[in-house]
Amino acid sequence: MKRLGTYIIGFLALFSWPDSNLLAQNLVANPGFETFRQCPRHLGNAADDLEDWETPTQGSTDFFHACSQTMGAPENFNGKQGALEGEGYAGFYAYAPQDYREYLQVPLRQPLVKDRAYSLSFYVSLSERSDYAIGNLGVLFAREPLEVRTKKTLTKNVWYAQKGNQYHYLESQGPGYLENMEGWQEVRFEFEAQGTERYLLLGNFQPNAQTRTRRTGRASNKGAYYYIDGISLLAEGTKAGPAPYPLDSLLVLPALLFEFDTDQLTPSGQAELGRLYGFLSTDASYFLELYGHTDGLGSAAYNQDLSRRRCQAVANYLQALGLVPGRLSWQAYGASRPVADNRTPEGRRQNRRVEFRISTRKPDNGQAERK
């Protein structure tokens, strides 16, 4: 499958900083499945491995990440797909024999406001080993989280068996099918909130008999399995751009690529860090995580230390500008996570990088490198 979008993001014109109150805040925590407790190692691991996300049923929803050999990205047991952004995504069965289903559930960063308009979007890609594509996916908002001991469809009868909860259900509409196996296909909802929405659940809430399906020509007898990434929930009227650094996304700037065998920041790198510091200064709840990398030349031990020194160089510069050490953490990976071919000069250059993620989650160990 082809990867959508570009991994290296450049900001060409950031001459003034917008009012932070106008920047759109994604109300979904960990929207790109990039923050996790541990690298995935087995099937049905999403609830155990991912931060923020849960599985409301006993269905074995999956989490994939480039760090894993067994639950990897882009290649894994159900096909091949690069992440929409960063290095991770989730996967679930939206249609399977005997009404088997898998779902995802996440608490919202804040409850939705009654009668306010919102826009929800996410991207899905049908796995190559699916023998069906479906025509509808659902979104269920709930006041309280669901925890149901079933592997079958979460129908309305199941929801309302949980006394005292309140729900707001949306279903994707349209004549087409979610059948893109080559890339990512957007699913979007526009709606007005009821004021009871505190949790978001994603999946297919219709039983097999009421699900629109189309055969793909495969013969796996598994149903329809979807990868999912890039979930966004925004209040209408907030300003989606030009927010220069989206929250909870793994990013790297061209200016934070390093010359061979050095941890020295370039002048353009220092300028970018000045802009990054300016953004972090707009909201004290923002925390920064750094991830250092090298190309494939040199020993593993040397590259590990070099990637650590690159993180340290970025951290020292930001702290010299005034960033509080407790808002910063970093981790060094050496040459273990290349994003380009180490056999070419340009590929090696792209691998000599420091990535970063801005979130509202406080780093575990502050300034110290996390082991």
Give your account of this protein's structure:
With about 375 residues, the chain is α+β, with helices and mostly antiparallel strands. The chain folds into two domains: about 20-235, Jelly Rolls (Sandwich); about 255-360, OmpA-like domain (60s Ribosomal Protein L30, Chain: A, 2-Layer Sandwich). The protein is about 15% helix and about 25% strand. The chain has five helices and 16 strands. It has helices at about 45-50, 155-160, 265-280, 300-320, 345-350, and strands at about 60-65, 75, 80, 90-95, 105, 115-125, 130-135, 140, 165-170, 185-190, 200-205, 215, 225-235, 285-290, 330, 355-360. The strands form five sheets. It has a five-stranded antiparallel beta sheet with strand order 1-4-13-6-10. It has a four-stranded antiparallel beta sheet with strand order 5-11-8-9, with no helix packed on it. α3 (about 265-280) crosses α4. The model is unreliable at about 1-25 and about 365-370 (pLDDT under 50).
Lay out the secondary structure.
Blueprint: H1 46-49, E1 62-65, E2 75-76, E3 79-80, E4 88-95, E5 104-107, E6 117-126, E7 132-134, E8 138-142, H2 156-160, E9 167-171, E10 185-192, E11 199-203, E12 213-215, E13 224-235, H3 267-280, E14 287-292, H4 300-321, E15 328-332, H5 345-351, E16 354-359
Parallel strand pairs: 14-15
Antiparallel strand pairs: 1-4, 2-3, 4-13, 5-11, 6-10, 6-13, 7-12, 8-9, 8-11, 14-16
Helix pairs in contact: 3-4
